[in-house]
Amino acid sequence: MIMNIAENVKLRLVKAASESATGDVNSDVVDMAGFDGVMFFTVIGTANAGNYIKAQQDAAATFDDDPQDLEGTKVVAGADGEVVGVDIYKPLERYVRLAVTRTAATKVGEIYALQYQGRVKPTVNVVADTINIETHVSPDEGTA
């Protein structure tokens, strides 16, 4: 039984926002050990067929082993400033990342990875100066 989401997922900032430019932006590598799935999401500033995200995997944490695109994971923003994401459940390799392709100049928002179905709980989602999530169970009404 899930008590609350915050203790049952791991949310991480895996890449700071990028200024408007062309060229690829890759997130930090996410180690899937102990988790079944991960959802990546970001914002694409300028909608364009050449600006899209895709998921990749590799057997090595360094992504030196010949990273592979994951079939069907290409997501193109339909409007300027749209949040785009991809959810990967049970990847075949231990290490995954999000790759953003930019052929038309665009900003890319912060990239987040939300890992879920972890084998160890609770998960702590406080990262200094990045993420601070609190959990409240049946809070009384009053001053926030």
Write a brief structural summary.
With 144 residues, the chain is mainly β.
Classified by CATH, the class of the domain at 17-116 is Mainly Beta
Uncertain regions spanning at least 5 consecutive residues: none
Average pLDDT taken over every residue = 90
SSE string, helices as H and strands as E: EEEEEEEEEEEEEE
Terminal CA distance reads 28 Å
Query: Which structural class matches the secondary elements?
Result: mainly beta
* CATH architectural type of the domain at 17-116: Sandwich
CATH fold field value of the domain at 17-116: Jelly Rolls
User: What is the tally of beta strands?
Assistant: 14
| Quaternary structure state of the chains depicted | single chain
Cα Rg? 17 Å
Outline type: globular
Task: Describe this entry's structure for a reader.
- With 144 residues, the protein is mostly beta strands.
- It has a domain at 17-116: Jelly Rolls (Sandwich).
- It contains no helices and 14 strands.
- A hairpin with a 3-residue loop joins strand 13 (126-127) and strand 14 (131-132).
- The protein is globular and about 50 Å long.
- The mean pLDDT is 90.
Key phrases:
single chain, 144 residues, mainly beta, Jelly Rolls, six-stranded antiparallel beta sheet, four-stranded antiparallel beta sheet, globular
